[in-house]
Each structure stands twice: as C-alpha cells, then as structure tokens.
Amino acid sequence: MNAPKSAPVSATSCWSCNTPTEAAAFCPACGKIQSLPANADYFTYFGLPRKLWMGMDALEQKFLQLSWKLHPDNFVNTDEREREMSLQRSSRLNDAYRVLRDPVARVEYLLELEGMRKEGEHKQQAPPELLEEVFELNESLDELREAKSAGANLEALTITLRVAEKNFGEKLHEVDSEMKTAAQQWDAALEANGSESDREAILQRLNELLNRRSYIRNLVAGVEKELQGASC
Amino acid sequence: MGHIVGIDLGTTNSLVAYVDAQTGQPKCIPGPYGSTLCPSVVSLDPDGSVIVGEAARRRLLTQPERTIYSVKRLMGRGPADVQSELQLFPFRIDPQSKNVIRVMLGDKMFTPPEISAFILRELRNWAESFLGEPVDRAVITVPAYFNDAQRQATKDAGRIAGLEVLRLVNEPTAAALAYGLHEKQRGHVAVYDLGGGTFDISILKLISTGEGDIYQVLSTNGDTHLGGDDIDNLLQAFVHKRIRETEDLDFSPHGELAQDLRKSLIAAKHELSEKESVTLRFALPNGKTFVHTFSRADFEALINNVVTRTMGPVKQALGDAHLAPSAIEEVVLVGGTTRTPVIRRTVQEFFGRKPHTELNPDEVVALGAAVQANILERGVSNMLLLDVTPLSLGIETYGGAVSKIIPRNSTIPASAQEQYTTGVDNQTGIDIHVLQGERELAKDCRSLARFTLKVPPAPAGLPRIEVAFLIDANGILQVAAKDMRTGEQHSIEVQPSYGINDTEIERMLEESIEYAEQDFAERQLIEARTESEAILSATAKALANPQSTEIPAAERSDIEAAIAALKQSVSGVDYRQIRRRIDELNHATEHLAELLMNSAVATALAGRNLAEV
Asked: In this predicted complex, what is the ipTM?
C-alpha cells in the first residue's frame, strides 16, 4: 500500500504554463490536466444545478465522455504529477456518478451538501405512526426464532410474517412516492428562486422521509433474512 | 523502451502475449517447447538453479519436495488462511511464517510472490527471445474477485521479476476485451471464467460512442478458491477411497504415487470432455492394477458440487447489475475448466443461450491482457475499460462493526473521504483499521491494514483530519491524510496486514536475478546451438544434392556466407545472435528448400525450411 503523492493545492492558473484555467479539468492553453478544486461538489462536477430530477441517459453520456478524457489509462506515459491528477479526477468522477445515478443516495448527498444531515447519519428510532406495527412485527420475529430453535412448525408464523413483509413493502412504496413529490417541490423551489425558509422546510421533509425509508428498508431486510432461514 | 506484454499468471498455466504491430491482433508467444502454455510450476534444483514450466512439471513426480504448483492459491494470504489448502495441496509451509507465508522448496524458503516472480521471469524470457528486444513492462491479469492483498502480492511478484506492472486487469474483463475485438459484440455480456483454481463471473456493458468502444463492468463476483483443482481433488479423494477399500492400501496424499495418480486422473478428466466413458488403469505398489471405468454421468455426479458452487456468484452478480438472465445478450466462457460439457450445459441452460467458445479458453485472458497493454502503450486509444472493485471497503468502528465507505462494484478508481477528530484532550493518535468484505463485523472481513493517525496535542474534538481512501485502477488501496485546519498533508505509515514491505521486495529482486538470469541464458544457448547443428547439417545435405546446382551462383554464395556467419556465432555465447543467424540462413535457403521439395516430393510442403524437409 502506497501513500499517494499529494497533488498541489488547487489553483486558478495552470501548474504547467500559468494560463488561467477557471477550474477546468484541462488547461485551455497547453491542454495539461489540472488538479481537482477542493470545493468541487458532485453536481458541479457534472455541470448540473442542485436539482433532484436528472435524465439518466444524459448523466451516463456525460459520465462516459468525462471518463474518456480523465481515465488513468490516458496518463500512463505522462509524469507522476499528471498521473496523480488523473487518479484524483477520475476517482471523484466515479464517486459522483455512483451517487447521482442512485435516486436515494442523491437525496442523501444533497442533504449533506445543504448541511441538513451529517455524513453517514442514521436515525434508528421507529417513526411514531409505525410503532404499533413494528412491535407486532418484532414479536412475530421473536416467535419465529424461538420456534426455529425448538424445531417447531413454522408455517403459521411464516404466513404472518409474509403478510407483514408485504405490508411494509407497500409502505416503502408510499415513502418513495412521497419522496418523489418532495423532490419535485425542491426542484420547483430552486427554479423559482424560492425563499430560504421554504427550501429549508422541503429539505427537512426530505430528511424525515429518508430516515423513515431507511428504517423500513432495514425492517424488510430483517424479515427477508429470517424468512430465508425458515424456508430451508 | 521495449514492448509492453500481457501476462496471464494462472493457477495451472501462465501465458504471455503481445499485439502484433503489423496486424494489430494479439498473439500468444510460444516457449522453448513450442507450446504457449507455461505450466505454473517451479522447481529448485539441488544445484541451486530454478526450473520453471514444463521441465519443472516433470519434476513433480521425481522431486516433489523441491517442486511447487498452484502457488497462486497462496498469494496474499496469511498462514491461518491456508490451513484448508494444506489438506489437499503438498505445500510445505514454514511453521515460523507470520503475516506472509513462506514455502519450503528443498531447504530454501520463498514467499509466494517470489515463486510467482520465477514464473513471470520465465515468461519475460520467452517474450524477449521471441520479440528480440528487452521487455520490462507488463499488464498482468488477476481473478476479478482477488482482494487488495492478493493484488498487491501479484504486483510485488512483477517487481521482483524486474517488470514494471503498468496495470492489473481482471481476468474476465481481459477475456471480454479479446472477444470484443473478435466478435464486435454489443450490449450486456456475461463472462464465466472457471480456471484451475479460481472462479469469476463478470457482467459487462459494451457501449459504442463517437470516440470508440467502452467496456464497462457492471458487477463482478466469484470465489478465489474454486476451480479445476477442486475437480481433481474430488476425483483423487474418490479413487483413494476406492483403493483403500478394495486393496486395503493407504498411500500418503502428497507422495510420488499420489502425484502420479493425479496426473492420470487429470488425463482421464480431459478425455471425458470428448468421450462418454474412460477407463483408468493405475499400477499399484502391491503389483496389482487398479481399474475403474468412469462414465460421463458418474463423473458429472461426482463434480456436481463444483458446478453448483459457481451458480451462487452468478446470481449475485446479475442481481448487483439489476439484470435478469434473459437480459444478457452474449455469454463468454473462459478458463480450461469450461471445456467440461456439464459446465457448458449448465451455463447455457441458465442464460438460455449458447455461450461463445470461439477463442481458445486457455489463451483468451492473455490475449486480452495484450490488448490492454497495447492500449496503455499508445496512451490514447479507441477503447476504454471501466472496471469495478469486487469487494466493499470499510473501516472498523466502535464495537467491532464495519462502516462501508466504498461499496462493492464501484467503478475504479474510487475514493472516500472520512473526517476524524479526537475524543479526549491531548490525544496524540487515532487508530484506523481498514477492511475489505461484505460482512457486518470486522472479525468476519479481510483485514487490509492498520495505522495510527498522528495528531498534534489539542483539546478534544478540535483536530480535524481528513483521511482519503482511494482504490486505484488496479484495485489496490492507497491512503493519504490531511489536516483540515492547516491544509498540511500528513504522512502515514501503513502496515499492510498480509504484505511484504519495499525493502524486502528489493532484496528479493536482487536474489531472483541471481537465480534466474544465468540459468536462462545458458539453457537458451544450448538450445540455439542444438538448433544450429540441425540446420547446418540439413543445409550441407541439400547443397550436396545434384538438384542444388540449379540455383544461381549468387544465391549459393549467399548461403555459404550465411553458413560461415552461423558457424562463427555458434562458437560465441550470445544466443540471440545465434538465433538471428539461424533465421538468416533459413531465409537464404528458402529457394533451395522449395526447389528440392518440388523435385523430391511433389506434395505441398511450401513454407517449410530445410531442417524440416
């Protein structure tokens, strides 16, 4: 494992010929690759506004086009500094594409960028309106585990859990469609240059929905895991 | 600068290939025995010289304690990892081995990268003799499912062999590159690669753009310990049991006899790909002959477990790519083990289409490596390969849990930045443990490295240090740290959990040169001299033939000059010069050879040289 040599701190002029670059990936004069500006976020990287709707085909086209130019394969015969810049830029491009093409990761990233959410934050509390159903589900899961270790008949419990799984699966769909609505509101507010408080309210709503989504997603995954164990 | 070659460093066989500048097509380079396959076997002669390839393979029977095969299974692994291998493979591991395994060959100890380096050096020599120019840079293939330590070990092997490894390419991806050139495929492609010791499945998307073709890997999965070796082990266990039952004869699993039996079983396995049944006859030490007839159905039942074990990763890879089997437009089979009919049938049934087998499954990975080498050599190209990391990268968090920071199947290079601070006043270090794997707990994942971030004394929570984890285009981890308040770059000493450090590699490089260079040059010289004897006597015979008077006098004197030149070079020690002069004499006698052939045998033997007439 090697520590990479540090790329020079981002500058606004070309490291090689000193021509102003305005944060472009390549110097307009000598064509040499430039280091990645420290403050570049994923949206800026793709030349996009911070909107939540984006055309997947256009995003892919842009990704491939940038990959052609930035990939380390193109820099094997250049000096170490350029190789390092290509590595930084192409890795960040891949990171950006990975996040932006996934609608949920995209919302999470926007919330982090807007300071609404800490990186990797997960609320593990059950949303209040789901509490009762979550209790019931956990009870059934406990019973299933007990029955499994006792070698008892699992059929009735399995049916109950499948119903619960379906129920929570539907809830997941509901959250997804609510998220879609909130995302559209965010895009509209951004376009109309809406007030700060409006935007913050939408972001807060998105954050709540995201937490609820990850909570339900974990529940469903847990049930799937137990049911898989029960069927074999 | 010399040629960049592509190398398939395989469990059973290794190959080297290059792209022919004239045709633009990749080609595998043959070795001294004429075959392009170099058995991945290394033997240490009692006189201290190292023997690699076919000659070493023959020594598996005569000097098993000085000879090692399937060393790829040990690359990048610790002593605790390989306990299960030791039941089945005759590896003699130094009991003192700590993080890095040391294997005994005779009375000397070597690390797996050193042994692999002997194989790489042999292939490098093949390439240099064939191309007639030095080779110091290479693209080497690795199983897609290799982890960081296994990749690093492969890169180290390259360095020890004196090769700059420009890129590690995943084997199934290399195969897709070779097939892409061949078939001009488009859309979603699945590459099923079952080799001697490893299994990989990769799902790719082939895209045509204005600038050229992009090979984008969507997902990959596999098992780094599943392959043809496992089939051989099953066969061997079955026969050992039979012999024990019928003859009350129990022989050591790693002795000469067992190696001999294994060889017969491998031959029987190969035959069963063509025939419906095969009878094994094997002479036992008690004077009797063990006879057993395997029908193809018996064989398929016996190895069913291996076939089934490949399907789990196949389904996982498809799921990760969000594709159904029917969405795959082309299926490519790679690796010698895919010659087995039951495997072809299983793959065909699963995907509902006939897989591609046009290219030699043994050569296709090396051909793809040569294609990638050519792309890198030219710098700019009309092909681009976007590969992924097979395993998630994570860091250990409080309580032994793992927080994933780069998910599996992320396009590489990929990175993640993590911010760290201190928990108590004047804390001077933060311990970081980097892991690879899909499990939730650190103890179930592969440890890659541990290091301590040094922090200047300050009140708790004040320091802000950003650690950048980066997986490069080879799938190898790099780590850097930056103090966010001062913008200063921190130096960090990373101790890889299963690696060799730079100083050790330098020492190994020096030692390996001592071992290998001299032996190879000597052997090449002997072979070149033998060959020149053959051609010189054939030429003398041809010139004595009355028919030879028909050639013009100028041509005759050219031939005589070439003979004199060759004779003179044979007295020297430069085998490359001898080879050149052989080629020159062959060229000078082309017309003569043709003449004699036409008159003697009127069959079409055109293109042959005198030595073959």
From this structure: 0.85
